[in-house]
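For reproducibility, we list the full input for the zinc ion complex.
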Amino acid sequence: MSTHDIQSSELWEVSRRLINFDTVSAHSNLEAVEYLEDYLKEIGFNVKVITDDVDGVKKASVLAWFGPRQPGGLMISGHIDVVPFDGQPGWKTDPLVMETDGKRIYGRGTADMKIFIAQALVAAKQVVQQHQDFKRPLLFVFTYDEEVAGQGSGKLIKILPQFFEETFPMPEMALIGEPTDFEIYSAHKGYATFDLVVHGIGGHSSVPKKGLNAIEKMGDVIRIITEIDGELEQHITPENTQLFPECPPSAFNFGIIGGGLAANMIADTCRLKMSLRVSPGDTSEEILRTMEDRIEREVISKMREFSPECNVTIENLHATPPMKSPQQSPLSALLSRVFDRPVEHGAPYGTDAGNFQHIGINSYVCGPGALGQAHQPNESIPVEHFLSGQEKVEQIITEWCAQD
Ligand SMILES: [Zn+2]
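The corresponding predicted structure, in tokenized form, follows.
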């Protein structure tokens, strides 16, 4: 296919439009949602838009369904938001303008994951045109704020059970088209981010005993977390060793630290930005409770003896659960056949699938483009993935939904 042929395809047009909407997580996605809604209604889907207000910014998820209202359906999901590009060095093209050099297709969201959404839309249109009467239903779920620890799908799963009861039966399985180079993942870790803030008492460094140094106390907090990390390593299951050979256990990461005002002042506060990757079988709630209990016993209680104002708090906590679907299932078998490869070990990152599996929808992550391209300057996917992805999704929808 020539560059001209690629650029005159419907897939190009839909992808180009989606990439052109600035859906950086902090911004509104309503224009993109309106476009998705119009497209889906045009090809015969029922559409429900669920709007939200996040710190004054209007955002929405899209639910769209086609076919008989019965169980056993297929869900296909992707997130509409993208990571920021403003101030990110290295871009050679306008991140919001999709371009190709004949080998790769460039733009923010090409890999993560607007082209997959475009492939799913155009594929659905093709299948619907050929098979008006679906045997099993198809449900699209497009979310916002996936890049903010899955906050959009985290809110959506609170309303989905009611939607499945009143409007449309819960699908049997889900495909999430995050960039995996078309590798098939049945599991990934959960993810939590949070700030730990030590509130001490400031003062002049000439009389250290008159204050309580927050940086020094943060040292105790870091020691406790390092010990918990060591304990987590003692509880590795054989299954997690197989799924995540590079790092089987749940694990903390110290991301950013800051505190104090000057070299000659006692630091009154210290903030540590952290994350926690949670292996299947563990929960972030449980691990963080252990952490809080130990900090309370070993740090806060001693600080309070000095002053009741001292404290250690957790702020800005966002958490999304791990995902572990059966390696052998009707959808994993279909994906394995369509993409001609086995179901892989766990994905090294979190997705909306953790939330969907949490309410009982076994999910698989498989899509065009490479993880290494996501969030990078000059984000791109190979032209072959662009073209073959639509055919593959067409085949999946046809076999699951349209054939006996
Ligand atoms: Zn993504």
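Residues 79, 112-113, 146, 178 surround zinc ion (CB under 6 Å). The chain has a mean pLDDT of 95. Both points were considered when choosing residues for closer inspection.
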